[in-house]
Design a protein that fits this description.
- About 35% of the residues lie in helices and about 10% in strands.
- It has about 220 residues and is of the alpha+beta class.
- Among the domains are: about 50 residues, no CATH class; about 90 residues, DNA polymerase, domain 1 (Orthogonal Bundle).
- Helix 3 crosses helix 6.
- The protein binds FE2/S2 (inorganic) cluster.
- The site of FE2/S2 (inorganic) cluster (FES) has 11 residues, from loops.
Length: about 220
């Protein structure tokens, strides 16, 4: 397998290992041809370049083109390339949960994964939940938004709101696996998300309400 070919590693396009190998080889080749620090001028389709690469990501059900460098994180691609600013850069190592999005149905920290690794995998951000990130704390038709967002509004489960999109996506992933979760399980399941404003006392009842609502069919 040519390690620089994005399309040569199954549906996902490229493995992290192959990509790192490929980008290293590409960087070495570029340094030889163009000199160190220079960016290759030509970018062949499906080949990793040391400069910008146009890739297609499946975000919120749409195929979206975005220019990324090999080092670009998914969070940077979403926020800077696609103007989807719900996921937040709160911590560089993902320990705050602020950049949580769903990748292939699983919660991931968007700032801990490269955009190139996400090719071919469905990505869902808070903007894809039927409302938008400002809707969570704004004056909107509450009935139009996702039940988790609605519960956060009803329980006033956000103050500055910076952590809220990450919490909401973590709740979506948690409840998808644990639709009948108890309060204790909810507390444990969400312990990877931090809130500087300390809204935990409102977040937990909000999630309990979502479980009850699902049970009652509302
Ligand atoms: S509401 Fe401010 S950080 Fe959570």
């Amino acid at each position: 397998m040519n390690p620089t070919e994005l399309s040569a590693h199954g549906k996902s396009g490229v493995s992290r290992r192959a990509f790192l190998k490929g980008s290293g080889a590409a960087a070495a080749a570029t340094a030889l041809v163009h000199g160190p620090g220079l960016v290759a001028e030509e970018t062949k389709p499906n080949v990793v370049s040391v400069g910008l690469n146009t890739i297609t990501l499946d975000v919120n059900g749409k195929q979206q083109k975005v220019d990324v460098e090999p080092r670009t994180t998914l969070l940077e691609a979403l926020r800077l390339g696609l103007n989807l600013t719900g996921a937040k850069p709160i911590s560089v190592d993902g320990s705050s949960g602020g950049s949580t999005v769903l990748l292939g149905g699983k919660p991931v920290s968007a700032n801990s994964i490269l955009a190139l690794e996400c090719i071919g995998k469905p990505i869902v951000t808070v903007e894809g939940l039927g409302g938008n990130s400002t809707a969570i704390s704004g004056e909107i038709a509450v009935g139009a938004i996702d039940p988790v967002c609605r519960a956060f509004v009803n329980h006033d489960a956000s103050q500055c709101g910076f952590c809220t999109p990450g919490f909401v996506m973590a709740v979506k992933a948690f409840l998808a696996k644990n639709p009948k979760a108890t309060e204790a399980q909810i507390r444990e399941g969400l312990n990877g998300n931090l809130c500087r404003c300390g809204t935990y006392a409102n977040v937990i009842p909000a999630v309990v309400d979502v479980v009850k609502g699902a049970r009652n069919g509302s």
